[in-house]
Fold:
Amino acid sequence: MKRFTRLVFIIVTVLRFGLDEVALSAFRQRWVRALVRIVTIGRRLDAPRGVRLREGLVRLGPIFVKFGQVLSTRRDLLPPEVAEELAQLQDRVPPFPAAAARAIVERAFGRRIEDIFESFEAEPVASASIAQVHFATLSGTPAQPGRAVAVKVLRPGMLAVIEKDLALLHQLAGWIERLSADGRRLRPRDVVAEFDTYLHDELDLVREAANATQLRRNVGDLILVPEMVWELCRQDVIVMERMHGIPISQTARLREAGIDFKKLARDGVTVFFTQVFRDGFFHADMHPGNIFISVEPATFGRYVALDFGIIGTLTERDQQYLAHNFIAFFRRDYKRVAELHIESGWVPAGTRVDELEGAIRTACEPHFARPLKDISLGQVLMRLFQISRRFNVQIQPQLVLLQKTLLNIEGLGRMLDPELDLWTTGKPFLERWMSEQVGWRGLTERLRDEAPRYARMLPELPRLVHDALVRRADDTGRHLLHQLLAEQRRTNRLLQGLLWAGLGFVGGLVVATVASHLWLR
Structure:
């Protein structure tokens, strides 16, 4: 019943804000336009499309807001007025009352807010789907002034709203898998399960603080990450260093400050590849609301990252597979790309390499050595989807966050430098990384990492070898003994059978002899 009422609420909201009309208006077919006129009969949809879409997504809740945030980074796919409205979802979602924020902070720390902070700004500086941020100053002393911090407060009641939407998504995913062959190939239930995990992680702000600390340790030389005030971190409130910079979406201010956009775009690609391939730990919510650019003299032009609730991780196997794929793409070695897909099990083992190679070449070759502004992402995605259907490519749920982040990165690159060539920018980094992984440097690094284990194992090696040989000898002896006993049992059964047969034969002879003797008398 809860899922049904939520579904009814979603349908009513879609109709109230005309979201169906917004979605259908993207199509240019005559019959679709006729359908739009029919479905909007009797409804007053006076507000602009972008405003209705933004307000409708906010009304529907955090999951839908996140979808709008992803869309807002793709200005190549949206009309400008719609993209501008959706950009407000990045950090200008309607805030919850300041009194509620104060109450949550005081309940989390068990103290009055005045006992913790010299000042606490009631008006949030940013408000998103999951939480909002207030600037504050920690209590100080005459000798040591208070530290400027940012206080992130979780929205009240988020868990209940998210649980309802996730339950509905799980049910819809199950229907899709049961009703469609394509649905089974796309594995929607696994994708929703991954999404479920990341959303619940985002509701624990202590986990976000830990993510930020790890990211700061990994890439502190490339991007600026706020330091956490750990004694003031709780599940629904965290306090961190206040960061300064210009939002990356405010391009006019960045130009006035003298920021080099081409360098910024190249640095963004390097930061992304470093997080993914070197560390296997990457910021997976890189929409413009979470990215600033520092204009301080000491850190001029460096990225400032915020909001670490969604972090992606990759296993070493995933990293190696993706790196080999990217390098093969950069070298236009489509045969190797096809082989990698088969080796990884992404396509059935019986797939013909030459057929898959030709399909991948057809999808990718037209887009090499072209700037972002000349690449139609829609055409690329449609072609790749057709390939995935034809060759029954299995979707990998563990890479969903990476795919989402790639969309964000490409959107940022398109905004900063439409002439950016992703292939040329990314290829040297990946080739250098692969050389470090499989060359002498990689071997040296792995030997150094394993040295403590080897040092502990080497003195024990003779004893371990001796024990293994003894166990092997014991096992061999036991095996031979079992074989002899089994053979003996088989011999005993045979002898018993022969004995009983002999006794039966002798008994028969005796009976026959006695009977014949009695008959003759």
Observations:
- The chain has 22 helices and twelve strands.
- The radius of gyration is 34 Å.
- The mean pLDDT is 77.
- Residues 332 and 365 are 8 Å apart (CA to CA).
